[in-house]
Structure formats: structure tokens, C-alpha cells
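Incident review: delayed structure delivery

Summary: a single-chain prediction request sat in the queue longer than the usual turnaround. Root cause was a stuck worker, restarted by the on-call engineer. No data loss occurred. The affected request and its eventual output are reproduced below so the record is complete for anyone auditing the incident later.

Affected input:
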Amino acid sequence: MAGIKSLAKETAVYGLSSIIGRFLNWCLVPLYVYLFPAQQYGIVSYLYSFTAVALVILNYGMETGFFRFANKHQDPDAVYSTSLISVGTTSALFIFLLILFLSPVSDALLLPRHHDYVLLLGITVAVDAFCNIPFAYLRFKKRPYRFAGIKLINVGANIALNLFFLLCCPAISRHALGGLVNWFYLPLGGQEFGIGWIFVANILSSLIVLFALFPALSGKITRFDGTLLRKMISYSWPLLVLGVAGILSQNMGQMLIPYLFEGNEEAARKMVGLYGANIKIAIVMVMFTQAFRYAYEPFIFSQAKNKGEDKTQAYCDAMKFFVIFGLFIFLGVMFFLPILRYFIAPSYWAGLRVVPIMMAAELCFGVFFNLSLWYKLTDRTRWGMYLSLICFVLMGALTVVLVRAIGIPDGYLGAAWAALISYFAVMCISYFVGRHYYPLPYQIGRMALYTALAAILFVGGELLNFPQAVWLTYLLRVVFLLAYAAVVYRCEFTKGIKSA
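Output delivered after worker restart:
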């Protein structure tokens, strides 16, 4: 259990920074949706989905490759230096090519009049890609507090800059003190620049993070080992395909909807805006998965050095407790969704129907990621590529079919169902293939029990809804949450209970 305790501790630290950071960024959503109509916010969600894909491409699996080789190479600093030089070079090349081909790239993104948005986010994603390597180095060195601190600096700077550009600058500009901001505010378009200020805040906060990471960079870019890089790329390139297919799958709906309804751009952007705003409520599950991921990758590679049943038990326990906490989060969000919905404007509430679907989809994705250890530890990363490609093709086909079938204005529901079906399918495929290459005695019966219990409690919470006595509704839902926790405690921590 020592390994699990260490994993839990680091997950808690990474999770705290991730949860606080995501929550604070989440709090920007009300600002955006109250300031901008769904059509405008749809552009933000749409572009962010493409930058997420670009970030994965620019990292090309080097994060995981760094952990793999740093743990088995005699000189981890050489691995770090080689990774920095490689990702730094490709990020700089990306910025150069984007500037050179800015117009055709903007046209391809269906934003021919918004070259500035594309350029700002392109530079931001290149800086972020480079920063991911020193962040990985901090995780490798087991410095979660420094990692968390810098992540929170990024979030704090982004929020402060958003508030400054979107609220303070317009107010100051209209009064006698306008000269304090008008020298930069008006030349960039002032209030008419609108959502563009969101992207300006992004790039400035990313540059602040780069500066904060300087101690992890100073004196580290000293060696470049071409032979080592070739080995790392050989290991990582399937992870690149895996990552690109995975992130394309995660953002499939927001990326495809505008192309599926060409000629109805306003309606399509509104659907993207509704979808993008409401899946932010499901971000709690994403935060949990992300926090777990930060601690899990170093954990599995460090545990791989051990022998015997201890590491096997640690892997199985990690899966079980991921499912336990994931289901608890699902119930918590769904039981209190009538309160959480106030984080977005009432004009966006029509999209609340996607929240339970996307919460379940993200839980399946988290289990799928947890299962990835079998192909990472056996150096069969091509299987990760195959699984992600299956997910990508399946989700793409389902998204096109379901979104078009449902049509305007609720087509985004098709994207949510496509995500859930696809993640569930690849989760199952990964489990059964993994049993052949790296069999682990997962407690399937126990996890199925918890899933069934959570499903029953969810349905019960939805049915036992008393509009005339709201307090009773929430009291019953709290009781249901406590009942779930009590069953888990009885099964997991009471002596004498045998494993399923």
C-alpha cells in the first residue's frame, strides 16, 4: 500500500492545483457567457479545440518518452536536455510556419477575418508545448509543490488579465483616466476587439509561466544526444498518434459542427457555444482525471522497477480507487446540477442535457487511460495508437451521423453521445487486449458493484425531486451520497471483507 499512499499524496497535490486552477478558470465561463452571445463564445470553444490538438502534436509524446527514458537512462539530465532542445526547436519552427501561412490557415479554420485570433493562440500553444517538458521534469524530480505553484501562477495571471482586459479597460477607457490604457487598448481595437482579449490574456499568462520555469531551464540545455532522441521518438511516435487521435476525439463535436452546417454559420457557432459552455460543468471529472494522470505516469514507471505481487496489487488498487472516486464525483455533480448551472447564463441552460452524458464519457476515458499502463510498460505503444485511432474513427463517424440526424438546434447532443459510445468501446477493447499482453487481476466484480450502485442512486436522485420542497430534494441527495460512501467504506476498509 506504500506505493498507493505515495500516489494518493501526489495526486492530492497535483489535484489541488488542478482543481483550484480549473475551478478558477471555470469561473471565467460566467464572465464570457454573460459578456458574449453564444455565437461569439462558440468561436472561443472552437479555437480552443484546435489549440488542444496543436499542443499534442507539438509535444509528440515526449512527456511520456521523457519519463520512460529518464527512469532507465544512466543520465536523466541528458534525457531532459535532449527533450528540451527537440521540443524547443519544433515549437519555434511551428511559430515561423504559422506566420508564413497565416492566411491559408485562418481560411481553413473558417475564420478568414480573424487572423489575429489564430496567430495569438498559435504562439501561445507553442510556448505551452515547450513548457510541458520542464513541468514533466518537476514531476520526475517529485516536486509537486513547485509544479502546483507555477500552475496556479498561470491560472492567477490568466484570470487577472481577463478581468483587466474585459472589465477594467473598457471602464477606464471611458473616463478621464483613459490615457492609462488607451495607448494599447484602442490601437488593438478597444472593446470591439471582444473575445480577442481572451487570447491576449492567454499569451501573456503563458509567457509569465515560461519566466517562472526559468530555474528548471537554467543550465539544463547543455547536451543533445541524437541517438537518444531517435530512441525516444521511436518510443513516442505511436503516442503522438495516440494523443492526436485522442484529443481530436475529445474535441470532435466542437471542431466538426461548424463544418457540418456550412451556410448556417451563426446556428452552428451557437450550438458550439452551448455545447462548450455546458461541458465546462463536467470539467470536474476532467480535473480529477488530469490530476490522476500527473501522478500516475511517474508512478507506473517507478513501480515497474519493483518485482513481485506488490506492483501488481498497486496497479489494480489504483484502478479501483479511480473508479470509486470518479463515480462519487459523477453523483456529486449530478445531484447538485441545479445549483452548478448558475455558473453559466440562463440562455445557455438548454444545453444542460449534455452534462450527465459527458460526465459518464469522461469517466470511461479515465478508465481507458488507466488501462494504458499495459502497452506503456511492455513498450507496445503502437497499441495505444491503434486504440486511439479506433476511437477517433468511431467518434468521427458517430458525430457526423448523430449531429446531422438531430440537426439544428440540438445537434450537439449527438456529439456527446458519440463521445460516450466511443470511449466505452475503446475502454472495453483495451481491457480485453491488455489481458493477453499484461494480465492484471482487476477487481471487476467490485467495480461493477459500485457502478451499479451509483447508477441506482443517480436514477433515484432524479426521480425523488420535490420542486415544492427543494430542501427535501437536496437532503435525500446528500443521504444518497453518504450511502455510496458507506458502502465503499464497508467493502474496502472493514476487516474481513474479501476482495471480489
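Verification: The chain is about 80% helix and 0% strand.
Action items: add queue-age alerting; document worker restart procedure.
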